[in-house]
Amino acid sequence: MAMRFLTDRKLAEHLGPARSGTEHHWAVKVSSVALLVLVPLFVTLVGPLIGQPHAEVRAALARPLTALIAGLTLIVGMAHFKDGARTLIEDYARGSARLWLQIMVILVAWGTAATGLFALGRLAF
Amino acid sequence: MLAMGTAAPYAAMRTGSTGHEGKMADVDRGNRPLSPHLTIYRPQLNSITSILTRITGNALIVAVFLIVWWMIAAATSLEYFNMVNAVVTHWLADLVMAASVWALWYHLLSGVRHLVWDSGHLLETKWTSALGWGLLGGATILTLATILLI
Fold first, then answer.
1. Which positions in chain A touch B34 (Cβ < 8 Å)?
2. How far away is chain A from the Cα of B9, in angstroms, using its nearest Cα?
3. Is the pTM of this model over 0.80?
4. Three-class SS state of A101
């Protein structure tokens, strides 16, 4: 294998050795600030509904504020989960296990968010 | 570090490939140990609270699955909802949800600590320790409040 004259400095310049700069850190920071507001609202609005009868749950989840908070919490929460789980996988898995786990986490995160949004949409509209 | 020009034996040693091997800056890149070496690390408040942040954040996916399943059941039919509702209100699920409430508040408070630290504040040892106990105590108080009030 021919040596290419890439130095430590060359790798660290601009976007750094990860080639993505601080993009991941920034995304997690923004979603965490959003969740700081959304999570207490979600716990307050959706928490008491768990265990309630069908009609009550349907009516409550169809209310605009509850549906909006639940939907936003799912979207931002799953984006935040995808970013956090990625770091977990990077720390403990390597090679093709890392690759497939990362792909799986992204698909499961967006699939879960889409399922919840579909349910909320069906109840609200 | 081995001398340059010995890339072939290195390739055999590697367990993972990053596509960067053989360059001047990262000959050993594919064979680095993975963090965070839990088995040789002496437990302390800062490491435990950090590990708990990771565990709580990732474990919360279980509660998300339960709640989304319950939502899609509510949108499907009365029969299906009643089945899922029976699962979600089972004492075992109650236990999972109570643990998830603690995990949620712990992870939230820990996130606040990260935002504060990112701003460059409260990084002194006495503060990091106080905040560590604050996370554990705060999450427990918020969990009791949530279970009692909601």
1. 91-92, 94
2. 11
3. yes
4. helix
